[in-house]
């Protein structure tokens, strides 16, 4: 059977080479599927981008309305907005022209703005607010899709109209509230000032009095003690200089006179301890003053004092280590360099404090003055708090806050809120560039199936040869020609699609998938026709008709009638479209391989069943074809 099939295929190729007409016909068979796919993809590339060609009439009969001395015409406002809108070809005409134009097909739709439009919109200012209405007139007979587009445009326009009305009504309502808020705002500064104090001090005035008394007592102590500490700064500076001088003596005694070296170290420890004690008292006094006044100018001084304490402690630790080395007859020479460096650093820190004594005195004096100022102002502040408490208790604070807030209302913010209280943030998984790319999986799959039907309709399933072949051999032999045609049809579709710049995630994967689908479709259609003759062709066409709807290529299967939902999983192009969608928008490999695997079932089953039944049904199919020819009609 394989040898015979090979002979049939070779004979088919020879016949094609030797007959130019056959080449032309086959070229047409190869090109027609691509024309179907590419023309449809091009036609649906981005239809919503050209809606500006659709004529929509606008008839504005709004006579306007006067409110609080201001003239409003919301209809004119909408017309001005539409003049800047390029979604449709807006035609501004009178009402009669608009209605007749829609009836006659001159306009796809019309918007009729009534004469009382502004009046009903602004009825929000009355005790009987009414809902404004714009009449939308559409001619559904002109086109099946155009009314859907204009309906969408009308919905979008309604949103825009509502936003404009919100802006107008917002200006009226919140403008009035703003006027009322201005009255409350006259005392806003005083109210907010006293409110802040009341939150902290109301009911705690006695505690504030006690705190001030304690602060006054502390400042008296500071004012008495500080001059004494200030006077000791030069003394500390002198002690630091003495310590620095004794280092030189210590250095000369270390090698020659250990006993004098020991006494020198001990004297230096005593001097350093005195310095540390003085600095600690100074730190304590300044820290206490800072806690009482909160004066930030004291912090740098406190930091300098604490830095001096740290360096003096370092010197003391090193002196103690040198003393221990001398007592244990160890050589302390290795520590002397570090000791000298530490003494120099401590001396520099104390010199910095002593040299800035006047500045420190001024800062301490200013801190004391600030507390004195607080004492002087406190009776006035205390009286204001008590007076404010009495005023606030006579007013509903929450209502006052709301009225004051209205005076500062951001009108644009209010408009934005009522125009869109909730903002929808969109996230697209596997986005597709345009409508044509989104529909390309459907049109490509359908075109390949149509190409297969054209091929079996124009090329005979029968082999004319002097040599007799079995039905199975003819099936296998002629299949080679059809598979070559299917391959070429797929390649042309791939090339044309890529030249059109249809979105694909991978050109190579797209090409392989399309060729795979074309070959699978050819095996199925060829097998049906080879087994059942003209009946097989009819079956392929019926399957095509069902697949156009049931594969979900355009509308989701869930939106289709139950019959099409039921047959959807049993149609080959369901999986062809699914695989191509993965390649176009972005591959989810689990879905891709599921579609590829499911699609392979159809040609496999068709091939096996045809081999089984070919011999049995072939003679009946040939008899049917001969009878049809004899009728003169086929």
Automatic annotation (TrEMBL):
<feature type="transmembrane region" description="Helical">
    <location>
        <begin position="591"/>
        <end position="613"/>
    </location>
</feature>
<dbReference type="InterPro" id="IPR013525">
    <property type="entry name" value="ABC2_TM"/>
</dbReference>
<keyword id="KW-0472">Membrane</keyword>
<feature type="domain" description="ABC-2 type transporter transmembrane">
    <location>
        <begin position="25"/>
        <end position="612"/>
    </location>
</feature>
<dbReference type="GO" id="GO:0140359">
    <property type="term" value="F:ABC-type transporter activity"/>
</dbReference>
<keyword id="KW-1133">Transmembrane helix</keyword>
<dbReference type="InterPro" id="IPR017500">
    <property type="entry name" value="Phage_infect_YhgE_N"/>
</dbReference>
<dbReference type="Pfam" id="PF12698">
    <property type="entry name" value="ABC2_membrane_3"/>
</dbReference>
<feature type="transmembrane region" description="Helical">
    <location>
        <begin position="538"/>
        <end position="555"/>
    </location>
</feature>
<feature type="transmembrane region" description="Helical">
    <location>
        <begin position="481"/>
        <end position="502"/>
    </location>
</feature>
<keyword id="KW-0812">Transmembrane</keyword>
<feature type="transmembrane region" description="Helical">
    <location>
        <begin position="21"/>
        <end position="39"/>
    </location>
</feature>
<dbReference type="InterPro" id="IPR017501">
    <property type="entry name" value="Phage_infect_YhgE_C"/>
</dbReference>
<dbReference type="GO" id="GO:0016020">
    <property type="term" value="C:membrane"/>
</dbReference>
<feature type="transmembrane region" description="Helical">
    <location>
        <begin position="442"/>
        <end position="460"/>
    </location>
</feature>
<dbReference type="InterPro" id="IPR051328">
    <property type="entry name" value="T7SS_ABC-Transporter"/>
</dbReference>
<feature type="transmembrane region" description="Helical">
    <location>
        <begin position="508"/>
        <end position="526"/>
    </location>
</feature>
<protein>
    <recommendedName>
        <fullName>ABC-2 type transporter transmembrane domain-containing protein</fullName>
    </recommendedName>
</protein>
